[in-house]
Task: inverse folding
């Protein structure tokens, strides 16, 4: 009987090759954790980060190996296509940068190197799962695998109260978001009888009724958007962002601000543009309103801040609003514009955060604006990358941010949402007020009373190198944007958008 | 029996949880309420699973339980760490970060 | 000759001066600007006035995914402006290199980059490329004002950037929309200005796109009531930078109307013609009155700029070939006059312990006859003395307006009269009257004379032979406004088509 049952089980076919990037991340996480148990300072400080980097490089290699693939694996649970592969590259790059930023971080010592880097890898694995998910179950698993390690990482600087508080706050709010998302997903399942994105799309189109006439589906979609909105820090679900960004250790803040954002927008794109694409006319106005609110709230919120990390937190909210515009128009052009902007955003934000991390260790001012006073003459090697990052975030020409905005505006006009394009322009103009404040503090200090700076020149060539690489890339892609176009081209078609 | 009854119960549980998260001060209670929210969703998943006659919802619910356990574990860990730093276990007293 | 060389030469020199030792930074920038000027003059000499269409075209794919080209070219609209820009930047950089600056490497780097950006904006023949250069030319001035400016510089420069970028970001949206909407019929996406001329956007679309561009240009000039950033920025910007900023950057905006807005959005231009004429008129009157009430020399000429640009916009939006030609001539004139004015202000300030207030100056003419003579010529040119090139420019402009909007032309004429009042007031109170309390009369130095005398000679040359820029402008100016004229007065169709067939090959 048992034997008969056993023979009748038909396991789903797993395309291990396509699945390999995620497997590599998870195996790497386990291995790093085990290495971290070995005794010895050298093991902790060199081998553990080294193994993490190796894992990431292996993942990158496997991702590139699978480049051009467009399949769905494990009974349709995950999709390996241009969208997920591009984002995998983004995650791996961010992971590498975060490892480098963390090398001299107190948090790694306090939390234990093995654990710290394992959590980082686990979170990356969650992101990889999330952006590949094309099933409600994998979506939820991905989002939790992404979030739970991040809660811990936020709190990983155990000796600093702010860090612990940030961790708890993020945990509570993140979990509320997850629960809301889950409740929404259950309704979507209830309305369509399927957890599969394509199944949902099929059910919606076969019924021939709009979401608006189906309260179950409407509620479910609304709650799912709210839940994803929490993760992506879309206003009005962004309130946690400044606090958590400020409290978390800076490398983790930088990681959250780019990788988490990329992951959240990745699944947003896939969910909206695959599962419920037939109902685009119903949800477009809703998302457009959210995008508008997010752009305004993020930019206005940043104006009054004095901590650079908080400014960057609000700015990341605003940037999320720009990204949302590409989702609203639900076209291939929109998807590629969002993806393009995500790649660019990662590069320029990492440049900014590497300078913040470097300054935090050099001064006693932490991340307040005064830590940057007169940086232009004192440390031009840090001031120039920061300036480039700020100008790029504001969308000044000859930086990558400009081309990114160009794409988004083009997509918005193309999708008959020109007013969102205008809003992007106005938001960018407002954002100049705070980006330029940072630039002004660095380059245009008061001539009288240069604040007596207690610099502790700190050997940290790796972070300065990061800042230079990222800012150079920002300029490079602003002048020669075609490599990123080549990267994202076809992402829209790969998930079946026109 | 109409599925609406099950949905009503699950929505009630979810709302109780949500209200608790917003109103309660003690992080332990907040964690409890988070569990309530997740379990409210679980209930509706299982009800829908029964309605559609397929197992997807039940599998989903089982996975959610695992995830919920992880979340609580992490939450408790952070609370213990806060306690070790002798910080008040009261969400309103967490004033270092001003939202 | 490739226009790219002219455009990027200053920036390369600037980059070199960034790396060079402090002492030679200025000289390197001067050499770069001089080489650019020489090339620009060669270009002007080789320019063929009779050939229609663009010359010296560079056309390369820049962002192929969006159909954005790196397309440069010159024609009668921009060739004179290009040469003027090269000349004036050279003068300003030379003037600046005679002075001491903190961190000179950075200063000259920014100055040179600004020149590249302005030249690029004049040459760009692709909408997006134009927007890129247009925004880019602001950034060096942001840093120059913020780092080397006077009191209140950070606030002033931030205000300036935000004001102007609101405008230019709206222009970016408008530019993108132009390309995207024009491609909606299935044509390939292009932003080339020549390609878009055939697009034929609907009137409603043209109207909102027009507003986007107008916002950018009117703020940049600036015209009343969008000049809010101007007084603060003018008060603090270092004078050599202010000279080119006021003299040249404002012309990029005026040029943008003729190059882009009117040919591409003729219906929009016709629809908003009266609004723009009224704004121009208001600027003429407001600028003149304010120039008369100010005592700070920078602001006197800042507000005078507002009035002068009012005239230029008046000429452009007369939407007649006459007006457009006059506007183009006046752009060159005003640029050539403004730069020496601000350089002279720097000299005057140096002779009154840094004060730029006319109440503290005076009586320089006796001890400094050459300086006084230079200032006199410039002042007379500013007030459009008959015989000066400005007179011809303003005459053409008023003539163009007079044809269609008589009342506006008559009111605008009062601006000419008021210009006489404020220009002479500034001249008399600095050069004549009693010697000011702070003033120490001193003749112009040899180095500064080397900069200023040739500039004033150029003014005189233009006065004697204004036909040169006019001749170049004639055909393109008429082409630029032809469609808008048609939109304005469909009954005039026969005459207009005749005109178009006359000027297009």
Result:
């Amino acid at each position: 009987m048992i034997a008969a049952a056993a023979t009748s089980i038909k396991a789903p076919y797993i395309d291990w090759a396509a699945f390999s990037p995620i497997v590599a991340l998870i195996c790497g996480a386990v291995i790093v954790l085990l290495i971290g148990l070995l005794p010895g300072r050298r093991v902790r400080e060199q081998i553990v980060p080294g193994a993490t980097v190796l894992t990431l490089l292996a993942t990158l290699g496997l991702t590139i190996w699978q480049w051009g693939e467009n399949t769905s694996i494990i009974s349709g649970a995950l999709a390996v296509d241009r969208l997920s592969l591009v984002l995998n590259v983004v995650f791996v790059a961010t992971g590498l940068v975060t490892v480098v930023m963390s090398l001299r971080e107190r948090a790694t010592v306090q939390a234990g190197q093995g654990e710290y880097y394992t959590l980082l890898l686990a979170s990356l694995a969650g992101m990889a799962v999330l952006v590949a998910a094309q099933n409600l179950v994998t979506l939820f698993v991905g989002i939790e695998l992404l979030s739970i390690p991040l809660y811990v990482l936020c709190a990983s600087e155990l000796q600093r109260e702010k860090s612990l508080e940030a961790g708890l706050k993020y945990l509570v709010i993140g979990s509320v978001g997850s629960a809301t998302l889950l409740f929404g997903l259950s309704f979507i399942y209830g309305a369509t009888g399927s957890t599969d994105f394509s199944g949902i799309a099929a059910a919606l189109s076969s019924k021939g009724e709009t979401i608006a006439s189906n309260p179950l589906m409407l509620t479910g979609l609304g709650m799912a958007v709210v839940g994803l909105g929490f993760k992506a820090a879309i206003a009005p679900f962004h309130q946690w962002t400044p606090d958590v960004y400020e409290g978390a250790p800076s490398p983790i803040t930088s990681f959250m601000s780019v990788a988490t954002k990329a992951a959240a927008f990745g699944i947003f794109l896939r969910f909206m543009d695959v599962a419920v694409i037939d109902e685009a006319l119903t949800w477009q106005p809703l998302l457009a309103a959210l995008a508008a609110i997010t752009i305004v709230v993020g930019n206005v919120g940043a104006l009054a801040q004095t901590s650079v990390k908080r400014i960057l937190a609000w700015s990341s909210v605003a940037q999320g609003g720009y990204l949302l515009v590409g989702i609203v128009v639900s076209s291939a052009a929109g998807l590629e514009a969002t993806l393009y902007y995500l790649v660019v955003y990662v590069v320029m934000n990492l440049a900014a955060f590497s300078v913040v991390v470097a300054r935090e260790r050099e001064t006693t001012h932490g991340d307040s604006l005064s830590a940057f006073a007169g940086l232009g003459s004192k440390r031009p090697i840090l001031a120039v990358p920061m300036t480039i990052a700020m100008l790029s975030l504001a969308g000044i020409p000859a930086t990558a941010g400009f081309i990114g905005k160009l794409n988004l505006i083009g997509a918005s006009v193309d999708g008959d949402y020109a007013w969102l394009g205008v809003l992007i322009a106005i938001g960018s103009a407002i954002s100049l007020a705070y980006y330029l404040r940072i630039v002004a503090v660095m380059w245009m200090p008061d001539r009288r009373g240069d604040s007596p700076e207690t610099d502790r020149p700190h050997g940290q060539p790796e972070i300065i190198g990061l800042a230079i690489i990222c800012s150079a890339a920002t300029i490079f892609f602003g002048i020669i944007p075609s490599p990123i176009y080549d990267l994202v081209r076809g992402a829209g078609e790969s998930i079946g958008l026109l | 029996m109409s599925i609406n009854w099950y949905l009503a119960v699950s929505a009630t549980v979810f709302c109780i949880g949500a209200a608790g998260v917003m109103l309660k001060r003690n992080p332990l209670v907040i964690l409890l309420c988070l569990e309530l929210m997740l379990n409210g969703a679980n209930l509706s998943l299982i009800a829908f699973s029964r309605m559609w006659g397929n197992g997807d919802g039940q599998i989903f619910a089982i996975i959610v339980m695992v995830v919920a356990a992880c979340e609580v574990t992490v939450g408790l860990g952070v609370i213990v760490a806060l306690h070790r730093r002798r910080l008040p276990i009261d969400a309103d007293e967490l004033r270092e970060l001003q939202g | 000759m490739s226009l790219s060389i002219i455009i990027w030469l200053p920036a390369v020199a600037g980059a070199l001066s960034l790396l060079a030792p402090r002492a030679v930074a200025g000289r390197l920038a001067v050499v770069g600007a001089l080489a650019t000027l020489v090339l620009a003059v060669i270009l002007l000499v080789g320019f063929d006035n009779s050939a229609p269409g663009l010359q010296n075209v560079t056309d390369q794919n820049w962002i192929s995914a969006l159909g954005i080209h790196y397309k440069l070219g010159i024609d009668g609209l921009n060739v004179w402006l290009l040469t003027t820009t090269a000349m004036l930047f050279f003068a300003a950089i030379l003037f600046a290199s005679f002075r001491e600056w903190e961190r000179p490497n950075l200063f000259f780097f920014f100055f040179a980059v600004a020149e590249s950006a302005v030249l690029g904006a004049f040459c760009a023949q692709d909408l997006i490329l134009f927007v890129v250069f247009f925004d880019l030319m602001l950034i060096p001035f942001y840093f120059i004002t913020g780092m080397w400016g006077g009191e209140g510089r950070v606030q002033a420069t931030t205000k300036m950037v935000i004001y102007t970028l609101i405008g230019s970001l709206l222009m970016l949206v408008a530019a993108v929309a132009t390309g995207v909407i024009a491609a909606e019929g299935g044509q390939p996406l292009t932003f080339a200005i020549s390609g878009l001329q055939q697009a034929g956007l609907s009137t409603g679309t043209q109207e909102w796109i027009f507003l986007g561009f107008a916002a950018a240009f009117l703020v940049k000039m600036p015209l009343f009531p969008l000049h809010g950033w101007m007084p603060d920025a003018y008060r603090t910007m270092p004078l050599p930078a202010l000279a080119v900023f006021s003299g040249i950057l404002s012309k990029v905006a005026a040029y943008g109307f003729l190059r882009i807005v009117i040919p591409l959005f003729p219906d929009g231009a016709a629809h908003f013609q009266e609004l723009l004429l009224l704004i121009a008129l208001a600027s003429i009157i407001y600028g003149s009155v304010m120039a008369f009430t100010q005592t700070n020399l920078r602001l006197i000429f800042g507000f005078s700029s507002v009035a002068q640009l009012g005239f230029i916009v008046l000429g452009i939006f007369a939407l007649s070939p006459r007006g457009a030609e006059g506007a183009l001539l006046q752009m060159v004139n005003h640029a050539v006059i403004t730069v020496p004015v601000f350089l002279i202000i720097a000299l005057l300030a140096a002779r009154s312990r840094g004060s730029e207030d006319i109440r503290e100056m005076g009586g320089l003419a006796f001890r400094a006859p050459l300086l006084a003579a230079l200032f006199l010529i410039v002042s007379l040119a500013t007030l459009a003395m008959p015989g000066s090139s400005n007179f011809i420019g303003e005459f053409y402009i008023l003539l163009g307006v007079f044809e269609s909007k008589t009342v506006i032309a008559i009111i605008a004429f009062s601006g000419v009269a008021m210009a006489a009042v404020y220009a002479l007031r500034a001249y008399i109170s600095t050069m004549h009257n009693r010697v000011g309390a702070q003033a120490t009369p001193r003749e112009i130095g040899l180095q500064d004379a080397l900069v200023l005398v040739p500039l004033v000679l150029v003014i005189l040359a233009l006065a004697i032979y204004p036909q040169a820029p006019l001749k170049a402008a004639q055909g393109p100016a008429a082409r630029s406004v032809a469609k808008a004229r048609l939109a304005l007065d469909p009954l005039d169709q026969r005459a207009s088509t005749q005109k178009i067939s006359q000027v297009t090959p």
Summary: Chain A touches chain B through 42 residues (CB under 8 Å). The longest strand of chain A covers residues 71-73.
